[in-house]
Fold this sequence. Notes:
Layout: H1 2-17, H2 25-32, H3 39-48
Amino acid sequence: xxxxxxxxxxxxxxxxxxxxxxxxxxxxxxxxxxxxxxxxxxxxxxxxxxxxxxxxxxx
Length: 59
């Protein structure tokens, strides 16, 4: 019951806002494209610092 109510509410909200933060899907992607991390590069950077990332596959 709760999940159904939340799903309905989320669907209504997403239609009304037309994308995350009201920017629309494509606008949001363009706005934040430069802030995206390269997952492999970040994993290698952390590994070089000696930080173990348990969710990353081991060589």
